Amino acid sequence: MSTGDTLDKLVVFLAKRDGIDKLVKTFQYVSKLAHWGAESSRPELAKRAKSWETASGLSRKAFRSGRFLTGFNALRRAPGEFGTLAVLANAGEMVYFFFDHFTWLSRVGVLEAWLARPACYVSAFGESVGYLFFIAMDFIMIRRGLRMERKLLREASGGSKDSNAGREKEVRKIRVDRVMRLMATAANVADLVIGIAEVEPNPFCNHAVTLGISGLVSAWAGWYRNWPS
């Protein structure tokens, strides 16, 4: 791939709301790890990294304004084949993004500062619930894809050249879909860890390294999924 092609794809990627979000999320969690690494040996650098982390986190919340409407719109439509799973997943996402507004406004001083903690808790709880059901749906689809792939490969062993070409195309589509769903699952699991750290604080989930790595896994998996093909 040429430098020009890469630059063109980067421009398209950054033109998307999710593209910008993944870039700033990378800044947020790289700075978190930098703060942790420099805290004891280079306090001034750690202070700057912390400021970068805070600024990145608040800017992401501002940029996600109105994002809860995505979940609300999904709830308005028929739940489809997943039924209750889809309803719970999208409801959790809607709660997450809706209460994120109150977290942001309280942290920048528009609302009372004490609102930040309960709003963040409700937001993280909704986020965690939503991710659990999104993960479940992706696993169901991955399992279906594996079954269909095995069926197509069995049929290909005794089929004609023309029919096998069609089956190979279907197998490629199934494999691409599986990779994308695995990336989505990796991002959702990583974000679930971050959500648990807020809902039920514990030494493992709340450690700076755990949060930093989880944030970067989520950001880079999302980067991969949103990168122009």
From TrEMBL:
Q: Tell me yes or no: is S-adenosyl-L-methionine among this UniProt entry's keywords.
A: no
Record-level Gene Ontology MF annotations: identical protein binding
The protein's location, in the record's own words, is: Peroxisome membrane
Q: Which InterPro entries match?
A: PEX11
- Ranges that cross the membrane: 82-99, 119-142
Q: Does the keyword Cell cycle apply?
A: no
What are the alphabetically sorted keywords of the record? Answer: Membrane, Peroxisome, Peroxisome biogenesis, Transmembrane, Transmembrane helix
Mode of membrane association: Multi-pass membrane protein
Q: Which GO terms describe its cellular component?
A: peroxisomal membrane
The UniProt entry's GO biological process terms, in alphabetical order, are: peroxisome fission; regulation of peroxisome size
Domain of life the protein comes from? Eukaryota
Q: Record's family?
A: Belongs to the peroxin-11 family.
Q: What does this protein do?
A: Involved in peroxisomal proliferation.
- Provide the protein name: Peroxisomal membrane protein 11-4
Organism from which the protein derives: Dichanthelium oligosanthes
